[in-house]
Amino acid sequence: MKRIICKDYNEVSRLGAFMFAQQIWSKPDSVLGFATGGTPVGMYRYLVDMYKDGMVDFSAVTTFNLDEYYPMSKSHKQSYDYFMWDNLFSHINVKRENVFLPNGGAADAQKACDEYEHKLTLHGGVDLQLLGIGNNGHIAFNEPCDELHVKTHVIELTEDTIEANARFFDSRDDVPRKALTMGLGSIMKARRIVMLITGKAKTPVVKQMFSGMITPQIPASLLQLHPDVTVVLDTEAAGEL
Ligand code: F6R
Questions:
Q1: Ligand 1 geometric centre to CA of 91 (Å)
Q2: If you measure from the C-alpha of residue 140 to the centroid of ligand 1, how many angstroms do you get, rounded to a whole number?
Q3: Nearest alpha carbon, ligand 1 atom 8
Q4: Among 1, 60, 212, 220, which is most buried by a count of CB atoms within 10 Å?
Q5: Hey, which residues are catalytic here?
Q6: What are 157-190's pLDDT values in tens digits?
Q7: Whose CA is nearest to atom 11 of ligand 1?
Q8: Mean pLDDT, the chain, as a whole number?
Q9: How far is CA 63 from its chain centroid?
Q10: What CA–CA distance (Å, rounded) separates 154 from 157?
């Protein structure tokens, strides 16, 4: 895993946006993998600015998001669908039919996961995948556990994650207890991965991720097996690396 340590959140966001722009410049019909959460907001802002300045064209791009709460309607303000349109898609020229997120509103969650995995395969997989990391080492919603799933699946969120995500909801009780998430296999199939990590709260997990050990208790540690991962951190998250 390559790592790049930047001064602060702004520098991390700018570099992340530049890496995505570069991907689109080299392959205009790229399949991009996107993430939600607090970390990528700055990067999306930079991508919107680059689009408005005529520097990047999303018209041929396809996007797949990592995950969605379940059950969750698209119109809910805390749905990841809403988040992506609010922070990025509504402000750029990506085509609606080229945007994919797991369907949190599906009656049959497992069927929705299977369909999502199938669509991902039909599109030839992800060229550049954006990742964040949970304080507990999760990537997408692959939570620490004894056995990891390969494909898109339904997952019960851990108390840690419910606690961490409660900040986006009116109350902790409003956080959905389940999610649909790409599996570790779906993520590891991406041709290139960029992970953005900022803030002091992530310092301990960053240390574990780079420890040289691989364990399903720190799902992000599996990324050590991927041939092309760049981790972009701010000095706070990097700690004593
Ligand atoms: C969301 C996702 C999650 C977040 C992680 C970090 O799509 O995949 O794994 O990346 O929970 O979230 P923030 O950026 O809010 O610290």
A1: 22
A2: 6
A3: 140
A4: 220
A5: 67, 136, 138, 143
A6: 999 889 989 999 999 999 999 999 999 999 999 9
A7: 134
A8: 96
A9: 11
A10: 10
In this structure, the residues whose C-beta lies within 6 A of any atom of ligand 1 are 35-39, 66-67, 132-134, 138-140
Which residue type, as a one-letter code, is found at position 140?
Answer: A
Residue 192 pLDDT: 98
Q: What pLDDT shows up at residue 160?
A: 86
Whole-number CA gyration radius for the chain:
17
Average pLDDT, integer, range 135-145: 94
Q: For residue 199, is it left (φ>0), alpha (ψ between -120 and 50) or beta?
A: left
Which atom of ligand 1 lies nearest, measured to the CA of 141? 9
CB atoms within 10 A of CB 49: 14
- For the chain, the farthest-separated pair of C-alpha atoms sits apart, in whole angstroms, at 47
CA distance 95 to 59: 6
Tell which atom from ligand 1 comes closest to the C-alpha of 196: 14
User: What phi and psi, each to the nearest 5 degrees, are found at residue 91?
Assistant: -105, 0
Q: Which two tokens stand for residue 28?
A: 């205009």
Q: Let me know: does 234 contact 199? Beta carbons within 8 Å.
A: yes
